[in-house]
Amino acid sequence: MTEIELNGKRMTSESAAMEYLFDMFEFPEYYGDDLEALYDALADLTGETHVTIINREIMNNTSFGQRLMWTFEDAASDNPHLTLAWTEEENNEYE
């Protein structure tokens, strides 16, 4: 199983979030750089993948962050290989 930990602090603007996410997931460039492309990439995952996102409250304070959360939730509900967890705990590695 692949486990990916993401920091909501790095996902409040579209340009920063898309670069961060595509690097963290190592998606090919042909997926594009918008939420539709992210959904497609997440929906296409075939290996068991668990994503934990910290600092959800920071994402929730921006309209893009809210749309990004919905994208993750939609993809996780449509792809049985993708599980999602939210936590407010922050490790020092995210500083």
Verbal overview:
This protein has 4 helices and 3 strands, in the order βααβααβ. It has a 3-stranded parallel β-sheet, covered by helices on one side. Helix content is 44%, strand content 19%. The protein is globular, with a radius of gyration of 12 Å. The longest helix has 16 residues, at 63-78. It has a single domain (2-94), classed as Barstar-like (Barnase, Chain D, 2-Layer Sandwich). It is of the alpha/beta class and 95 residues long.
Output the structural class.
alpha/beta
Number of DSSP E strands: 3
Distance between the termini: 25 Å
Instruction: Identify low-pLDDT runs.
Output: none
Q: Helical stretch count?
A: 4
Query: Tell me, what is the CATH class?
Result: Alpha Beta
Return the average pLDDT rounded to an integer. 87
Q: Tell me the Rg in angstroms.
A: 12 Å
Could you give a short account of the major beta sheet? Answer: 3 strands, parallel
Percent strand equals: 15-25%
Query: What do we call the CATH homologous superfamily?
Result: Barstar-like
- Helix coverage percent of residues? 40-55%
Lateral arrangement of strands in the main beta sheet: 1-2-3
CATH architecture classification? 2-Layer Sandwich
CATH topology: Barnase, Chain D
